[in-house]
Amino acid sequence: MTIQFFGAARTVTGSKHLITTDRGVQILLDCGLFQGINTDELNQTFGFDPARVDYMVLSHAHIDHTGLIPRLVKQGFRGPIYTTASTIDLCNVMLMDSARIQERDLDRVNKRRSRRGEPELDVLYDEQDVEQALSQMQPVRYGQPFAIGDTVTGLLTDAAHLLGSAAVSLTIREQGAEKRLFFSGDIGRPDDKILRRPDPFPQADYILCESTYGDRIHEAEPDMKAHLLRIVEDTCVKKRGKLLIPAFAVDRTQELIYALDQLSSEGLLPRLPVYIDSPMSVKATEVMRDHEDDFNPEILAYIKKDGDAFEFPNLHYVSDVNESKAINDQREPCIIIAPSGMAEAGRIKHHIKNNIENPNTTILLVGYASPSSLGGALKRGDAEVTIFGERYPVNARVEVMDSFSAHGDYREMLDFLSCQDPARVKTVFLVHGEYDKQLVWKEKLEAAGFADVQIPDMMDKVDL
User: Fold this and answer.
1) Model pTM?
2) Same domain, residue pair 52 and 178
3) What CATH number has the domain bearing residue 347?
4) What is the pLDDT of residue 223?
5) Taking residues 210-238, what's their average pLDDT?
């Protein structure tokens, strides 16, 4: 059996890991879009033949894990895609939005490539390809084994990273022996404001482990709501400016709405408009409401008391593009929450472009941002950034709240892995992380007793 790494190898986005059994059966773990600057060509080809892939198992709905599934289907993949019901519902929202973004942005991308003398690119996929991909998705419940062909058994356990997110355990039976492979997907946090804690998983021989925050401990946030309220008051009340929050449409946006809902219920939130400026975020919030069975006991108790954790006075869900443009013309203070979380696409990028030179503006970053993304540049403190091909000085204040991060830090990831006997794990492969962070995470894992920790590069192929 082999495994080959076609994405999220010494980088964060583009998650794709292809397993080939001794009988030639191919199982793809995730099929994500590469995101960030200079990734257009990376998304054009897979490095393997999609028509030869027999099965796919999907960890969760984030675009860096799902965003190329419709292209995989477009190029010939016809097998089942195993994932949770919540993930399927989110993919219906997120992949349709992704298809529209691909088509809308292609003209601008090709004009830029033409100026540089580079060949034009074809659209990655369209809405018909998304519909076909959705038709191939099969729902699987947490904790219930399912057959993948004749010789492989899968098991999904709650990873607590996103609504419906799962870690994947595979038991592969060949030549009279069993190999047990585990894929962490993205590891959530034990104190998520909406989701349950991550579940333990069966003992594995081989582990594919994410490493996004393998080099850090998240700063303690004794009162996240108080911190958020301080930023709101300083920006919107004292400076009379706009608070812009790039946030992933699912979970991160709803966590922010939930926090603001609580502040509103407590009578602490200033009376000012709060815009959720994204059709996808609006639809994703409805999906969240439909899957309260994935919520933790604390928010369920709040919903029972409050009635709705995602609705309060002066909250406006904006889908119409003309309404979105009108927000830019508004000079009054307000809060604008919109994807993408890395500020690489979507309406938030336009809001940042129109307000980044205003010193009364605050841009609040509440999740991971790839170093090559606009959010990464802002987080790094760059004095100038490129937006839609133009350079802009960063006069706005940039704030960071890591307490909203959906990725576990290295201590939380070690706790996640504590259900394993390190002596029985043959190899840990580190994926979904920048290389310098992976080197630190490798040391932490070795100190915890994992003897063989490897950091595969793009296209590396390993015999198990």
Assistant:
1) 0.89
2) yes
3) 3.40.50.10890
4) 84
5) 92
